[in-house]
Design goal:
six-stranded mixed sheet; globular; Rossmann fold; about 325 residues; 19 strands; five-stranded antiparallel sheet; about 10% helix; Immunoglobulin-like; single chain; mainly beta
């Protein structure tokens, strides 16, 4: 294994792209350490206490390094060091694999190596959306109807002229060395009271690949009737489930309707009756067909009765 500096964070950091290209000569693959540097109150860092930077794109030198390494024809594996989302659109087409490692600490190198060499099957999912460019920010999965990239068919603004409006990688995205397949989402009720109601949403998940792995099952809800503009959908439950090859399990989420509440125009925390749409999947952009529940009764006054988290259970299926 050979290491080379390549480039740094700032334009005046030591750099030798030629040495990095030469080091790749006999390599089976190239691991590129990309991203920023965290710290406190300094000008040699990109993010941290009392410090920030205006652009989410990689430094120009790092983009140059990736392009030069791509010319070697070697498989490129990027390890992204970041405390916030990065916009890697310029280099993403050259990369064969991307590992997000948010400033992982003294044991981070060993952890990243264990994933790269296949000793550990990755199961992490993004806790944020990764934009295509700084100009997309703010960009997040729970954007309100008609804002960001959550646009309706009747919206006259559907895209920008020089970029796709969707994230490069959406909230909840994550890959594995195996494959997971989802069944249809089901719910135990068709109607429930807006005030004091409860429902259970369930979905089957199967490991159809050749090795054991873990998936993070995500449940999203969209409140369709409201006097105030609400998010297109919001995460209301998630559960990590470990599955052997060929195994299947049912993941169920018990959701109190008070978890769906919001602040109305008067500042009171409420939930109005109306249709509720539910979807589930492995990321915010890879979801099942929606199912619907009708919230009934009067508007729920939920001040002091807020629920923050759903509860979940896993029921493994017996392999025959």
């Amino acid at each position: 294994m050979t290491a080379a500096t390549g480039v740094g964070i700032h334009p005046d950091d030591p750099r030798d792209i030629g040495a990095a290209v030469a080091a790749a000569g006999d390599a089976d693959a190239v691991v590129l350490s990309l991203g920023g540097r965290a710290g406190w109150f300094g000008t040699r860092i990109t993010e941290g206490e009392g410090t920030d930077i205006a652009h989410l794109e990689l430094p120009e030198g790092q983009v140059e390094l990736v392009r030069a390494m791509a010319e070697t024809g070697k498989p490129l594996i990027a390890v992204l060091h970041q405390g916030r989302p990065l916009a890697i659109t310029e280099v993403e087409p050259y990369l064969h694999a991307i590992l997000v490692a948010p400033y992982p600490g003294p044991h981070g190198s060993a952890a990243a190596a264990s994933v790269i060499f296949g000793e550990v099957n990755p199961s992490g999912h993004l806790p944020h959306s990764m934009p295509r460019a700084t100009g997309q920010v703010p960009l997040y999965a729970a954007q309100h109807h008609g804002s960001g990239y959550r646009r309706g068919d009747a919206d006259m603004f559907r895209n920008v002229i020089d970029l796709e409006l969707s994230p490069l990688y959406p909230f909840g995205h994550g890959l594995s060395y195996t494959q997971f397949v989802y069944g249809d989402l089901t719910v135990d009720v068709e109607r429930t009271p807006a005030d004091g109601g409860r429902f259970v949403a369930s979905v089957d998940v199967s490991n159809t690949g050749g090795r054991a792995g873990a998936e993070v099952v995500q449940l999203y809800a969209s409140v369709k009737a409201s006097a105030v503009t609400r998010p297109a959908f919001q995460l209301v439950g998630f559960r990590r489930v470990e599955l052997e090859p060929g195994a299947q399990a049912t993941v169920s989420f018990a959701v109190e309707t008070s978890q769906l509440g919001y602040s109305d125009v008067d500042g009171a925390f409420v939930l109005e009756p109306g249709p509720l749409e539910l979807t589930a999947g492995g990321s915010s952009d890879a979801l099942s067909s929606p199912v619907h529940i009708q919230l009934e009764g009067k508007t729920a006054k939920l001040d002091g009765r807020r629920t923050f988290l759903s509860t979940s259970t896993i029921r493994p299926h017996v392999l025959i």
